[in-house]
């Protein structure tokens, strides 16, 4: 499992159904790590949950899975999203990245740069 040091959990609170404040806050999904890497590069990313979630095209979503999920420490044994082939909720980092791709605020190339 990935660890983070005193990182902002705004995206977790707004996007992740698995996040429990005060419990296991030292664990981070790969999506969280990618979002914070992009933020550290200077790009502004809105982390508030919008009224309407933008959904990227299927091909873009598959590209996101290949880039982010494959590297995630939860992928093999603890990821309900992968285990259920997308029938369960994704992690918050993945959900935010998918929304940003769907809204055009982020590209797969920018995600590649953050990995």
Question: Which SSEs are present, and which pair or pack?
Answer:
Elements: E1 2-3, H1 10-15, E2 27-28, H2 30-40, H3 58-68, H4 80-83, H5 92-103, H6 108-114
Antiparallel strand pairs: 1-2
Pick out its properties.
115 residues; two-stranded antiparallel ribbon; 6 helices; 2 strands
Can you offer a commentary on this structure?
Helix content is 44%, strand content 3%. The protein has 115 residues and is mainly alpha-helical. It has one domain (2-114). It has a two-stranded antiparallel ribbon with strand order 1-2. It is globular. 30% of the residues are buried.
**What is the terminal separation in angstroms?**
17 Å
Determine the mean pLDDT: 85
Residues in helices, as a percent range? 40-55%
Strand order of the largest sheet: 1-2
* Number of H- or I-type helical stretches: 6
How would a textbook summarize the main sheet? Answer: 2 strands, antiparallel
| Low-confidence spans | 1-6
Main structural class: mainly alpha
**Got a strand count?**
2
Beta strand %? under 5%
- Spell out the helices and strands N to C: EHEHHHHH
Radius of gyration: 13 Å
What is the total domain count?
A: 1
- Overall shape: globular
């Amino acid at each position: 499992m990935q660890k983070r040091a005193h990182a902002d959990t705004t995206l977790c609170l707004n996007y992740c159904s698995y996040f429990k404040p005060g419990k296991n806050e030292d664990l981070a999904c790969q999506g969280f790590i990618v979002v914070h890497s992009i933020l550290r590069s200077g790009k502004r990313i809105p982390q508030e949950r919008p009224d309407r979630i933008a959904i990227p095209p299927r091909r873009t979503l598959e590209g996101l899975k290949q880039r982010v999920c494959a590297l995630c420490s939860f992928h093999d044994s603890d990821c309900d999203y992968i285990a259920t082939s997308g029938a369960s909720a994704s992690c918050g980092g993945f959900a935010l990245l998918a929304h940003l791709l769907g809204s055009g605020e982020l590209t797969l190339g920018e995600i590649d740069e953050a990995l």
